[in-house]
């Protein structure tokens, strides 16, 4: 009797439940999961993954960036490698599926292939990236940068809240940070990287679809805007002569919201605001706010930036306010590989699922991996689009679909290999 996709999905569910217990604070349903890089919880996760990988006949290694890599080897030792995986770490009080689900699904894919004696003309390396979220060291994409060969050694001196450097944490975890450069994959040895991840948004659920294919990973930019007005007594300064920085900020917030609503493939938010002197009876003099813009098309995002800054200048000048502006962060969008996306799209349709292509509004390890190889992503719907929260949830039946799609992708890539 063959091993089914349903059995594989049930195994993934059990493993996800097990790993959810590897958290700084217990009771994942109420308190969420907190699992950071190079911590006892990270070690417990890698120990469990190592056991499961070895039980599947995989060779296992931990690299010097604290990534865990399990290989399901082809009978051809000189074959190229398909990389599958995601990150093991979470945000503080995060959910049970963000990241780690993209490790478990490739593992049960391997179990499906092994149990059904399906041989492939390429190796499969399943990767549990050490740190994508950057919660402990603000070291976003640490693990994937190591594999891609773009890790900046200066990051080794970043510290956590306790003053421990990333270098020390990695050494304590059994790594040799000075040898990270040796852990880069050779581009000629890699076919592609595919990540399976919860959508972190509501689109698939709204359309009653279990999975979707990602076209691009969003570009992001962040700004700090400081608005200068004039403080005064709130009871004695007439309204028509006030220079209220907070009122100016309110206008900026409306401009950001309106522009993003009117522009396709653009989202944005004013997520942080600070006000001074912040007294109940004092006209605000200085208001500082953050502005974030995201789009899968860099030209859309940059054009929106120019338009927004022009609107802000006109609005604040009309209110006799001045401002300082700093672009604090910019990450270009990454387009998923066209050929690989076509194979993913075909794999979804092979499963009898209506195809939905959407872009990712969040960052992922593909942002780093695209420096190494072609990338693709498969999204799995999550309840209410909720992510980075203890109530993060998925439909167990969708795991079945995801395993089938991954198996279909492998079949398609094997055919592609044979035709070359």
TrEMBL record:
InterPro entries linked to this entry: Amidase_Cbmase, ArgE/DapE_CS, Bact_exopeptidase_dim_dom, Peptidase_M20
Annotated SUPFAM superfamilies: Bacterial exopeptidase dimerisation domain (SSF55031), Zn-dependent exopeptidases (SSF53187)
Family annotation (CDD domains): M20_bAS (cd03884)
Keywords associated with the record: Hydrolase, Manganese, Metal-binding
UniProt key word Protein biosynthesis: no
Cofactor: Mn(2+)
Keyword Metal-binding attributed: yes
Subunit relationships: Homodimer.
Family, as annotated: Belongs to the peptidase M20 family.
Protein name, as recorded: Allantoate amidohydrolase
Organism: Halomonas kalidii
């Amino acid at each position: 009797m063959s091993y089914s996709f349903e059995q594989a999905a049930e195994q993934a569910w059990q493993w996800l439940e097990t790993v959810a217990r590897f958290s700084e604070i217990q009771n994942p349903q109420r308190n969420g999961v907190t699992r950071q890089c190079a911590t006892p919880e990270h070690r417990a996760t890698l120990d469990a993954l190592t056991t499961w990988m070895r039980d599947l006949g995989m060779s296992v290694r931990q690299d010097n960036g604290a990534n865990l890599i399990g290989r399901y080897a082809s009978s051809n030792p000189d074959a190229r490698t398909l990389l599958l995986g995601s990150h093991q770490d979470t945000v503080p009080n995060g959910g049970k599926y963000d990241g780690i689900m993209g490790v478990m699904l490739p593992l049960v894919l391997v179990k499906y292939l092994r149990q059904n004696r399906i041989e492939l003309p390429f190796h499969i390396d399943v990767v549990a990236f050490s740190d994508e979220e950057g919660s402990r060291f603000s070291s976003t994409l640490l693990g994937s940068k190591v594999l891609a060969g773009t890790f900046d050694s200066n990051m080794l001196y970043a510290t956590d809240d306790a003053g421990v450097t990333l270098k020390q944490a990695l050494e304590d975890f059994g790594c040799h940070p000075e040898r990270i450069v040796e852990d880069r994959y050779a581009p000629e040895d890699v076919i592609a990287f595919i990540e399976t991840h919860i959508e972190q948004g509501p689109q698939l659920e709204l359309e009653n679809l279990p999975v979707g294919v990602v076209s691009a990973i969003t570009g992001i930019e962040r700004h700090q805007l400081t608005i200068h007005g004039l403080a005064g007594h709130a009871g004695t300064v007439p309204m028509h002569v006030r220079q209220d920085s907070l009122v100016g900020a309110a206008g900026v917030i409306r401009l950001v919201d309106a522009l993003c609503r009117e522009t396709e493939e653009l989202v944005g938010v004013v997520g942080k605001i600070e006000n001074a002197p912040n007294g109940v009876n004092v006209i605000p003099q200085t208001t500082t706010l953050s502005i974030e813009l995201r789009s899968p098309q860099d030209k859309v995002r940059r054009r929106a930036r120019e338009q927004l800054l022009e609107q802000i200048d006109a609005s604040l000048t009309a209110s006799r306010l001045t401002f300082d502006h700093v672009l604090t962060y910019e990450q270009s969008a990454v387009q998923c590989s066209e050929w690989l996306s076509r194979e993913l799209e075909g794999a979804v349709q092979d499963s009898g699922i209506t195809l939905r292509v959407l872009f990712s509004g969040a960052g992922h390890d593909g942002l780093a991996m695209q420096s190494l190889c072609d990338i693709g992503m498969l999204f799995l719907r999550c309840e209410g689009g909720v992510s980075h929260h203890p109530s993060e949830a998925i439909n167990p039946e969708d795991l079945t679909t995801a395993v089938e799609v991954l198996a279909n992708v492998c079949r398609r890539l094997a055919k592609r290999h044979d035709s070359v």
